[in-house]
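thought: user wants a sequence for this fold. calling inverse folding tool.
action: design(structure=
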C-alpha cells in the first residue's frame, strides 16, 4: 500500500507546485484556501478511491466527511496553507489511512524541501527511505514547537502562559506554522516536543503514525489518546518523561 500511496502523493505534489494559484478566505485572513488545496484534494480523492475501493474520506476542504467505512482516508491537501501562499517551505500534503480506530498508513510530503515522511503500522517510520527515530534529549535540552491557535485567538492568553512556562524549563521554542511537519520533526529528532491548543484531525492523523513508528508519543490535553476524527488539543514528545512534563504544564494553565 505505502509504495502506491507515495506515488499518488508525489503526483499530487505537481499540482501544489504550480506557479500560479488563487487565494480566497474561508474565515478571515487567518484561514485561507488556495486553488491548489482544492486541486490536490480532488486528485487525491479520485486516485485513492481507485487504490482502495469502498473507502471513506475525511478531508479538510469543502466538508468531505464520510466516516461510515471500514477504511477511511484522512487528508489535508496542504497543511500550512498560509506558508504555502507566501512561498515558505513548511507546507505538506498529508494522507493517512485509518482502519477502524487505528492509523495504519501515512505519508507527509513537503515538496518544497523534498522531505517525504512515511510509515506503516508496525514497520517503522522513514524520511526519504531512511529509517528515523526520535531523539533522547531531556526536557531542559528540548526544542518545543508550538503556536498561538491562530484560528481561535480567544485562546491566545492560555497558550501564551503555557508557552512561557515551558520555555523557562526547556531549551527553546520554534513556530514553523504547519502541524504535520512539526510532528514529523519530532519523529526524526530535529525537535523534541510539540503543543497546539486546537487541531483538526487532518492536521495530525497522518503525522501521528509517523511519530509513533519513530518511537514518539502523543496525547490530548487531558492526557488521553486522540480519536483521529475529532478536533482536539495535542501534546507530542520524544519520551514519556517529556510528555508527562509538558502535559503537567498544560493542565496547570488549562484547569
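)
observation: tool returned 255 residues.
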Amino acid at each position: 500500500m505505502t509504495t502506491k500511496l507515495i506515488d499518488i502523493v508525489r503526483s499530487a505534489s505537481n499540482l501544489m507546485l504550480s506557479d500560479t494559484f488563487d487565494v480566497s478566505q474561508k474565515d478571515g485572513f487567518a484561514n485561507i484556501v488556495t486553488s491548489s488545496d482544492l486541486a490536490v484534494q480532488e486528485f487525491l480523492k479520485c486516485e485513492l478511491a481507485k487504490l482502495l475501493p469502498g473507502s471513506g474520506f475525511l478531508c479538510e476542504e469543502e466538508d468531505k466527511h464520510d466516516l461510515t467505512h471500514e477504511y477511511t482516508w484522512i487528508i489535508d491537501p496542504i497543511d500550512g496553507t498560509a506558508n504555502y501562499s507566501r512561498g515558505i517551505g513548511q507546507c505538506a500534503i498529508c494522507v493517512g489511512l485509518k482502519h477502524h480506530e487505528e492509523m495504519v498508513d501515512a505519508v507527509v510530503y513537503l515538496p518544497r524541501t523534498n522531505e517525504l515522511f512515511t510509515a506503516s503500522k508496525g514497520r517503522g517510520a522513514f524520511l526519504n527511505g531512511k529509517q528515523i527515530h526520535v531523539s533522547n534529549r531531556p526536557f531542559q535540552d528540548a526544542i518545543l514547537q508550538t503556536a498561538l491557535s491562530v484560528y481561535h485567538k480567544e485562546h491566545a492568553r492560555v497558550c501564551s502562559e503555557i508557552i512561557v512556562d515551558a520555555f523557562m524549563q526547556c531549551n527553546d521554542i520554534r513556530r514553523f506554522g504547519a502541524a504535520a511537519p512539526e510532528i514529523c520533526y519530532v519523529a526524526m529528532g530535529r525537535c523534541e516536543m510539540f503543543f497546539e491548543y486546537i487541531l483538526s484531525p487532518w492536521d495530525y492523523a497522518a503525522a501521528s503514525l509517523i511519530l509513533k513508528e519513530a518511537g514518539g508519543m502523543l496525547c490530548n490535553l487531558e492526557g488521553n489518546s486522540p480519536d483521529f476524527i475529532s478536533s482536539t488539543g495535542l501534546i507530542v514528545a520524544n519520551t514519556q518523561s517529556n510528555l508527562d512534563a509538558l502535559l503537567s504544564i498544560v493542565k496547570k494553565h488549562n484547569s
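thought: summarizing for user.
answer: Here is the designed sequence. The mean pLDDT is 92.
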